[in-house]
Design brief:
Elements: H1 3-6, H2 13-27, H3 37-64, H4 70-93, H5 97-103, H6 111-122, H7 127-151, E1 163-166, E2 170-173, H8 178-194, H9 200-214, H10 217-234, H11 237-260, H12 265-281, H13 289-307, H14 323-328, H15 337-353, H16 355-365, H17 372-390, H18 394-415
Antiparallel strand pairs: 1-2
Helix pairs in contact: 2-7, 3-6, 4-5, 4-15, 6-18, 7-8, 8-9, 8-17, 10-17, 13-15, 15-17, 16-17, 16-18, 17-18
């Protein structure tokens, strides 16, 4: 870091951490999937107004000084694609444009990433404070989620978004889990790169939560792919063989022990869940409602994609005429991943929606560092990217994705960029 930056005035710690807490809570929509929805609505609306006003003034200064960066252009494209989906909702389904914009307004929370970069560059907060805030918040969430699963019956919240029901899994909570997935990556990297074995306890707690409580097929599959990519990219052949033997043996022994003790119900449940997906994929019938519904949603999406393949069919608000459910029956684009994105944004919009990942890949390739927080952001973006093939997570997590892109940008052009490794700044219009 430059000496000039190090000597800039920092905010008092209590103010810095309060600000970071508000940024994380609003950007990652944490209160939206807790019994605090009214608080979430108030907080997110307040944050959207403040961020929009801040960015307009910031943009005026940026244009005046002719310092528009690729990140600015990427943010404009990302927001405009989402708002264009509101226009298509009006053009195709006659939904008033106002409803489409309001349903997509949370995309403006992405601007929190621009605000964070500005605070870091001014020296008002440090990246260490951002990292520490992330760890404290994500650990707190993990404790809260465990508390709900262990002591609070989800039947009490059956009319709320964060509780789902299926005949196989019963009632279960579906909390906003992105920060806890990030904590899993962070803890794994602390163990593998810094040899801080105390983080193994956190890893085991999160994995147990995912497997035993959450029971999300998509999350587990995508997480497995992400960790495999990390495994092959970051270990030598000798380390790969050693780790495969050690951890593979632990998993096999643990599985055999559970089977011998008669704990086979969880295995049976997962066997049914994944076999149903396999049956649907190969055109066979499924005895699970959620798999059959996905098949129905695929067919609905294909019919409309055929009519509007390039620009898509837009986004419909649940506040207008009952939303998708009253228009197309049981249909939610987020359920069907890549096809859902093509349905909403069209082929053109979907390609633009994936631009942040291409931008992130380009930046991460230019940084060679085992900095744990940097690698956590890098692999969380990979997790989001892979998730979008199975579930259109960008529709509900757009602010989280762009926030991480902004953090990666800060690492690439400021944190590492002030030394000999990379240039200290990057400007499109100079």
């Amino acid at each position: 870091m430059s000496q000039e930056l190090l000597h800039q005035q920092k905010l008092p710690p209590i103010l810095a951490y309060t600000l970071l807490f508000l940024i994380f809570i609003s950007t990652f929509r944490i209160f939206a999937t807790l019994p605090l929805e009214s608080l979430h609505q108030s907080l997110s609306s307040f944050a959207i107004i403040l961020l929009s006003v801040y960015y307009v003034f910031s943009l005026l200064l940026t244009v005046r000084d002719k310092k528009i960066t690729r990140l600015d252009v990427l943010m404009w494209v990302f927001i405009l694609v989402n708002f264009f989906a509101a226009y298509q909702g009006h053009a195709i389904f006659k939904q008033p444009y106002y409803y489409g914009i309001m349903a997509q307004r949370s995309v403006l929370l992405s601007l929190s990433g621009i605000l964070l970069i500005s605070l870091l560059r001014k020296g008002w907060i440090t990246i260490q404070q951002v990292e520490r805030s992330f760890v404290i918040i994500s650990l707190s969430l993990l404790i809260i989620f465990y508390f709900f699963f262990l002591f609070v019956n989800p039947v009490k919240f059956t009319d709320m978004e964060f509780v789902a029901y299926s005949p196989i899994r019963g009632y279960r909570y579906r909390f906003q889990f992105a920060l806890v997935i990030m904590l899993l990556f962070y803890s794994l990297f602390k163990v593998s790169h810094e040899k801080k074995n105390g983080y193994i306890a956190i890893v085991l707690l999160i994995i147990f939560y995912l497997v035993y409580f959450l029971q999300s097929r998509t999350t587990l599959v995508v997480l497995a792919f992400t960790l495999l990519i990390y495994f092959f990219r970051n270990f030598t052949l000798r380390e790969k063989i050693r780790n495969t033997i050690i951890y593979g043996s632990v998993i096999i022994v643990a599985g055999a022990l559970l089977f011998s003790l008669g704990y086979t119900s969880l295995y049976d449940k997962y066997h049914v869940l994944y076999s149903n997906v396999y049956n649907i994929f190969f055109g066979e019938t499924s005895d699970e409602a959620s798999s059959a519904v996905r098949f129905m949603e695929f067919n609905i999406a294909l019919d409309y994609i055929e009519k509007n393949p390039i620009l898509g069919n837009g986004f419909i608000s649940n506040q207008w005429n009952g939303g998708w459910r009253d228009i197309l029956g049981y249909f939610y684009p987020v359920d069907i991943g890549l096809l859902g994105n093509i349905f909403v944004f069209g082929l053109l919009g979907t390609c633009l929606i994936y631009l942040p990942y291409y931008f992130s890949l380009s930046m991460s390739r230019q940084v060679h560092s085992n900095h744990v927080f940097f690698k956590t952001i890098e692999y969380m973006l990979l997790f989001f990217f892979l998730s979008m093939f199975f579930s259109a997570v960008n529709i509900r997590d757009s602010s989280s994705i762009m926030f991480l892109v902004c953090l990666l940008y800060y690492f690439r052009y400021d944190y590492f960029g002030s030394g000999d490794l990379l240039p200290s700044s990057e400007t499109v219009i100079a």
